[in-house]
Amino acid sequence: MVDGTYNGRCDFAIEYAPPLTTPKVIGKIGLFDGHEIGIMLARPFWGKGCMKEAMTEFLQDFWHREDMKAQNEIVADVDPRNIACIGLLKRFRFTETGYRKGTWETHLGWCDSLDLKLERPKE
Description:
3-stranded antiparallel sheet; about 20% helix
């Protein structure tokens, strides 16, 4: 993890536990620098609702944490080709706030960024 004030306080492993088996870690959900969400899920578990369940629990926990009361939004930086991730975030009411070209150099070459944000729900 990158060192930061909030890192490690809102990072969670996602476990899969079929009946009568030992749970195994299949992914991660958490925040970088207190406000940018990051999610990862093992490919065999894509499309099975695991990340939807994790996101539901994560957001419920995040918005009610005393140490996160000052945070009024969560942001995301997504490769625009990652349609599944964008769809998941939009299901949770993240909205698009911008598009940036050539922001990340990866093994695929230069990637663009679609920026999204989720504002703290009104209580």
